[in-house]
Amino acid sequence: MKKALFFILLTACCYTLNAQTNFNYHNEFEQKVFTGFLKNDISLGLELQLIADPSMSLDRFEYIKDNYSGLLTTLRSKKESFKNDGRFLSWMFYKVHRKALKNYQQYTSLASTIESGHYDCLSATSLYALLLKDLGYSPKLVETTYHIFLMVEVDSKQFLFESTDPINGFVESDNEIKKRLEDYSDENNGQLANSKKSYYQYNTSVNEKIGMVKLVGLQYYNEAVSHYNAQQLIPTIDLLEKASFFYHSDRITEFGLVLAQAIVNDDTLEEKAKQESINRVSGFLKSTKASLAVR
């Protein structure tokens, strides 16, 4: 069956990336920010990190922006009172966790995190990354197979933010940082070895530094996985197509092949709809040279 699937994918009509801008937008907010980004008139800030959320709206964004701005104002007002960046970053990490990160819940959007305090590693790390950038720092995001965390360097000193650890998530000891990094690698290998695929999970080891644009791709990817696990295949295509635009990776390729196989096996889809869906999946699987590379 895999050979047949690859034949379908390789012979399907596909888009070039330059033409791959006619996306199916799930709301007005996404279309406004996405098209603005394509025209280079939207900064890589809060708006862009929220566009993957299908339930986002222009009114909801204003509420979320107010919440975010209030948190940022609190942090800014305290920054100058600290004698050094290390002490401020430590205070900031735990202040944000106490104030904004209440309950861990997998596949939580950044919008829901800012609104309700539910969070996962992606949404919480995204929040920290945005706040750090707005405070004048340059966070370095690190993507692993099932996790994401960030590092901040100030005057050649490294600090690690582990957003899912409210007690000991701020790490400044060089030895402890080294141990944490080794633990992330071990967790990657262990979860891959023990993976049981009752639902979709990525099955290849990852340890990559990513920027804020690729972070948007991961927001879309998480939404795509959530919709796929809910057996909503067409919305999954929409989301994964946009994930690929922002961050075309092996993760996207593997999931795309799994998605294509699910489409082929879906008895509820007519043949025409199946072929159109396969064509779309083929399009973003073949789009290996993203125009975003020059941004």
TrEMBL record:
Keyword Signal: yes
Domain of life: Bacteria
Signal sequence region: 1-19
Keyword tags: Signal
Protein name: Transglutaminase-like superfamily protein
Organism lineage: Bacteria, Pseudomonadati, Bacteroidota, Cytophagia, Cytophagales
